[in-house]
Amino acid sequence: MARSLGHFRERCWKSCLRFEAVGCPEATSQVLGFLSLCDLSQDNDKVIGGEECRPHSQPWQVALFEGSRFNCGASLISNQWVLTAAHCNTGKIRVRLGEHNLRLWDGVEQLRGVAYAFPHPRYEKRGHHDDIMLLRLNRPVCLSNSIRPVALPTRCPRQGEQCVVSGWGLVAEFKNVKLPNTLHCANISILPTTSCNTDYRGQVTDTMVCAGVEGGGTDSCEGDSGGPLVCGGALQGIVSWGDVPCDTTTKPGVYTKVCKYLGWIRDVMRKN
Fold this sequence. Notes:
There is one protein chain. By secondary structure, the protein is α+β, with helices and mostly antiparallel strands. The protein has 4 helices and 13 strands. The chain has a 6-stranded antiparallel barrel. The protein starts with a helix and ends with a helix. Keywords: Disulfide bond, Hydrolase, Protease, Serine protease. Pfam families: Trypsin. Residues 47-270 form the Peptidase S1 domain.
């Protein structure tokens, strides 16, 4: 154990040296520049219908734990702030960054506690309204090639826009299937709200966005909750809700539309 922790500290220090010019750990996503779309480990698209991500190709991906149990995904948006879904608020959150295989220690991972949790004040569990939450880490992370913030959007997502969803959620719709150990990615696109509301009987509001593949077969699922939907290098969505059990035939996943909360996000971060 001591050797593993020492290896971690050494790797973190070396990573910090690369960012010394910008004062690591004060570097933010603005310093790091444009972040690319998911680089899948295979050319074809298992998240449901996806494939295992190339290790550390989603450096903003965060794993939230309740004790030793994996609970939700999340996204790093600065060196000390994480964005996730409000329904992931368990009150006892532990944060793991730089993860790919949750059962293996690669030496690039960093562990943090949560100093403060800020679920949206209007969050409503029953209707999934305002399903968004900010977490202020107990101390800044050391940015590296494996741990980097994702950019917040400068506009709202467009219909047909290509995106990537990632998470450690179910990779099959069958019951009794265990969550995967490795991070999975899927290429999906933004779908029309009108057709999505037909599927979900008008429950999709203007602060939500639907994404998937026309005809189904690719979707976020249980265990992906709170994780990122990244379009053009920007965090456009947070995995929120959908059909349960996950439906791989017709109904898409529904995401919190991040662009609608930029003012709230910046206000909370500025005041805290």
